[in-house]
# Entry
Amino acid sequence: MIHKIYQKARDQAIKTLGYNTIYKYYYGVLQHPLYVKYALPPPLMSSWAAIELTNICNLRCSFCHHQKKNYARKKGFIDFELFKKVIDQLSDYGIDNLTFNGGGESLMHPNFIDCIRYLCSKKKWRNIRLNTNGMLWTRDLIKEFLQYYDYQLSFSVQGFKNLDEDYRVGIDHDKVVENINIFLEERKNSKKKPVIDIFYVSKPQEDYKKFLDYWLDKVDLFTSALCFSENSEGGNAQKIEGYNEERKICQIPWNNFWITWNGDVYICEHFLLHPHNGDSVIGNVKEQTIKDIWGGEKIKNIRLGLTQAKPGKTLCNTCERWKIGCVSKPKETLENNVKKIEYGTMTQYYKPFARQKLLNET
# Structure
């Protein structure tokens, strides 16, 4: 009951003030002396969760952690009954912001449409982001998908044809572009209107502006998350404008968590990308509830170590993401009716439709 009351109050606040205003306020709360001193858990539950349908992929991208020689995680698909259990708990706890990614291509899951159907029938979520490399879609699958899905769909595209196919071994750039165009075409006649996003995570290129303008003319949102070295997060952080010399408190252990296909829960994407022992897993949803994991001793100790400025005594000792602005407050600008929002190394360009659906702007 308390989660539903909280959810209604939060939704009304977002509608009145806007999501980014709420985010900035929430970020400020996490820096409050009481949180810093006692490493208190966030109000009720996490604001965001990532779910991995599978860590199996049909491509071999040069910048992906799959290509690391020391990649050690077992590969598989989440059991459909476990998926439903996870979705039920996330819904009950008022977690409204979901991402489907991890280590693989979600469309490779044999029950992909069943997962989407169950997810979308459960309730109206604030937002869901589904990441895809765009290769496995067909017109029939797109039509079926559009019967249920009304959220954000992010296509990974790493530049124009030559660069894209160079970075992503196995990709057919022309087929991906064709599938995006089919989505835009079929969406016109669909009751569901998902936000179509181009997700660009690659090294800077000379024709980036041309690439950006090309896709902003077609889709609703363009997201750029720069990759400065292959299979790396912060190794070349000094090259980034706004590089952090001083380690700040990271808000990730108060905001986010990742659920992998086998039920393991990680506090941060960092532990999915780097080899760790079992200590990096803070729980398993087959054995515990998400609520118990979120308030458990493992995550509590991580928060405490960070707030006491002793990350070396936590699982975060090998992390360098703090160098590249992962705890930065967003910066906003508006030009030609396109809102540009910068979060550290990530920049997003929202056209009016995306602003309305994702940011609750009118």
In short: Residues 228-238 have pLDDT under 50 and may be disordered. The CA atoms of residues 312 and 318 lie 8 Å apart. The first helix runs from residue 2 to 17.
